[in-house]
Amino acid sequence: MNSSTTEYLRGTLKTIVLTLLAEKERMYGYEITQEAKERTSGEIVLTFGSLYPVLYKLEQEGLVQTESEEVEGRLRKYYALTLTGRQAARQKLLDFTHFTQLMNRLLQTPLTLSAQV
Amino acid sequence: MTTLTPQQTHSLRQHLRQIGTQEPLLDELVDYLACQAEDLMSGGISFENALSMIRLEATSLAVRHLHQTLIREGTLPRTSSYRNPYRFAKRAKVATGIIQPIRSTLLIGAFLSIILAGWLLASQGLAIPAGLVATLLCPLLLLLFLYGIRNARIHRSTSLIRPPALREEFSLRPLNRKIG
């Protein structure tokens, strides 16, 4: 993962986590990082240092609810979207799609120019 | 899929404690690192090697940065040693626990000195003026002494002098300063 990807990732981390959680009933921290890693063929690797602040923030905002369960002798915390969280995930995804479309339109010209040169 | 033994999970917990992980995050990070170790071990790596690899990622700096981010965002209460309530309690105890006895001792000393001086002067034949001075000064000093005790009691219960870390709202208030 290069520095540019990290830079773009910082602003979209919340959208990523919300969208991943929207696809499953509930997920735990490591599962989220693995899902992101697998879907991007290892291009995007989330660390616990970047993931947990987002998860805790989402919980504080009431978009996510948690439940702890003992798994293989250790306590595992599962995260699930609330009803508000599902709405927020949908909205975030729409906003991001719109943003990428805008970026594609905006950055098309310089790419064409560079190809001609 | 490899599963960690309780001893191996304990090693991870110990590592997290050594690098200063605080209790609210401990269980969650133990599970996170245990999953990571199990994944690595499934790929044929020994637990010792997996632990070494995990130690490279889960450093004290990474954990401290995570704590600071959570505190800054107000999702985790402040519990650093500098803002430890016990530290403040100790300081408050020192402040009100030493100053007050010294003040009381000085006042009692002054009170006794006046009586002694009065007695000495009286033995020299100056009973009336010395007795007059002692009669005026002794109640005054006694009042000052009682006033000092009253003030000390008020200070202990006043929220202004109360250590901030002991106030309920302090631990829940997000940290505003930028770190890093």
UniProtKB/TrEMBL annotation, chain A:
Pfam families hit by this protein: PadR
InterPro entries cross-referenced by the UniProt entry: Tscrpt_reg_PadR_N, WH-like_DNA-bd_sf, WH_DNA-bd_sf
All copies of domain Transcription regulator PadR N-terminal, residue ranges: 17-90
Domain of life: Bacteria
Parts of the chain that traverse the membrane: none
Protein name per its UniProtKB record: Helix-turn-helix transcriptional regulator
Species for this entry: Spirosoma terrae
Upper lineage: Bacteria, Pseudomonadati, Bacteroidota, Cytophagia, Cytophagales
TrEMBL record, chain B:
Record's keyword terms, sorted: Membrane, Transmembrane, Transmembrane helix
Transmembrane segments: 105-122, 128-149
Entry superkingdom: Bacteria
Name of the protein in question: Uncharacterized protein
Organism: Spirosoma terrae
